[in-house]
Design a protein that fits this description.
single chain, N-(1-d-carboxylethyl)-l-norvaline Dehydrogenase, domain 2, 2 domains, three-stranded mixed beta sheet, 6PGD_dom2, 2-hydroxy-3-oxopropionate reductase, oxidoreductase, NAD binding, 6PGDH_NADP-bd
Amino acid sequence: MDVGFIGLGLMGRPMALNLIKAGHTVHVWSRRRASMQPLLDAGAGDCASAAEVARRAALTISIVADAPDVEQVTLGPDGVADGAGAGHIHVDMSTIAPAAAQRIAAGLAGRGVAMLDAPVSGGEVGAIAGTLTIMVGGDAAAFEKAKPAFEAMGRSVTLIGGAGAGQVAKACNQILTGVGVAAVAEALNFATRSGVDAGKVREALLGGFAYSRILENHGQRMLDRNFKPGFKAWMHQKDMRIVMEEAHRLGLALPSAAATAQMFNALVGSGMGEDDSIAMLKLLERMSGGEGA
């Protein structure tokens, strides 16, 4: 396939590289020229705008920070809609509010472009390995056409429902992962402050009903004090903001998510927004006068 890729940050760069490795022809554009260079070195086509990306490819993909960025690269001047031809499909893999995804999809549909919202889970590690979980909302026929690109980037690809459904699934994912990170950080900090070997506690818990991938992977990274970002804390804060805004719109009580959202606010407010979200452990240590104080 001829695929256009817009947004070459922590996640986008390895995802685009995996498309090239899978044999797809990839055309790239990013607001920061330096971000494009690894893709150009790998053989990607050099584009001067999102519109040029869309002119060169029948399928474009974006993964950017938030809804205003998605709107800018799709519907703004020199955006995807300005360069797209008949039958063009745009896949947005950013994490944005479901209502925003629906609004952007409607705007693109009005200009002859089908949109799929396809946020991902798996972090930088999954992006590099091509093992992302991809949650998709939109038209089933467009999904089938885009599937070869999805399969180059992810191991689990699921069409959830209509426009915005992928973002609903991602919000659910962020509730579970956000609350999970906070819970693991609380447990390990509790063990340490109790004078017990937190590594041994984790080892014991992995054998029971408390097992989770977060305890297994992020728990070990917390013990190793490896806070190098695979998913930055400010991004998880943004995602939890989306969750709480949607809960407010729907009139839903999400008490665990609400408490976790406040913890991420405190984490970012404490100057750790560029750390991985597992720096939640450092925040709890500071609050309790421990190692991170």
